[in-house]
Amino acid sequence: MNIALLKTELDTPQYANLSPTDAAQQLNAPTIEYFAEVPTAELTNFLMNSGLYAKLLAVYRDHPVLQIRVVAEGALALSQSQIPVVNLQNATIQQTLPALVAGGVWTQAEADSMLNFAKRTKSRAQQLLGEPVTEADINAARLLDKAQSEIETLESLRAQVSQLEYRQAQFRQGIDPDNNGEGA
């Protein structure tokens, strides 16, 4: 757990007045949408089970618009490819979906359903830290400033003690450190 990074996040106003429990719950809540890379086999199963695959098959040879035939053929080829995952956020795919809707192959709702198949949500903690946070993590992050301040205080006190020990050693040797090293 990157406590320093968590502390930076907790320093933002939205977490300032939250208890550690509430802050952890808010950070762990799945609220951030993103497109996941979908395994090609899962996407193909989705297309087949939703009837979208059949609609592509129906038009890839016979649609009157060449662009629609090419798009449908490309989508079918992609679903049967050896590519392990498909990124539905890819610019080519994003341009393909409106063409399929405009060509009457799919409805807008069907095109949206394909995109929604790849949408996932993650938490801010997952996005920022790669893992969920606990109340203990929140407490540790909030104590980081105090700990740093105490470390600086301890280091300052150590330096003062060291100076006093040096002065004491000089006095024991009969040297007055306040008189430019002359006798005490």
Short description:
The chain has one domain (1-156). Helices cover 64% and strands 9% of the residues.
Description:
- This protein has helices at residues 3-10, 20-28, 40-50, 52-59, 66-79, 91-102, 108-118, 124-129, 135-172, and strands at 30-35, 37-39, 85-87, 119-123.
- The strands form two sheets. The chain has a two-stranded antiparallel sheet. A two-stranded antiparallel ribbon has the order 2-3.
- The radius of gyration is 32 Å and the shape is rod-shaped.
- The longest helix is centred in the last third of the chain and has 38 residues, at 135-172.
- It starts with a helix and ends in a 12-residue tail after the last helix.
- Helix 1 (3-10) packs across helix 9.
- With 184 residues, the chain is mainly alpha-helical.
- The chain has one domain (1-156).
- Helical fraction equals 55-70%
Question: What's the SSE pattern?
Answer: HHEEHHHEHHEHH
Strand order, sheet with most strands? 1-4
Please report the distance between the alpha carbons of the first and last residues: 56 Å
Poorly predicted segments: none
Number of helices: 9
Average pLDDT level: 89
Task: Looking at this protein, list some descriptive labels.
two-stranded antiparallel sheet, 9% strand, 9 helices, 64% helix, mainly alpha
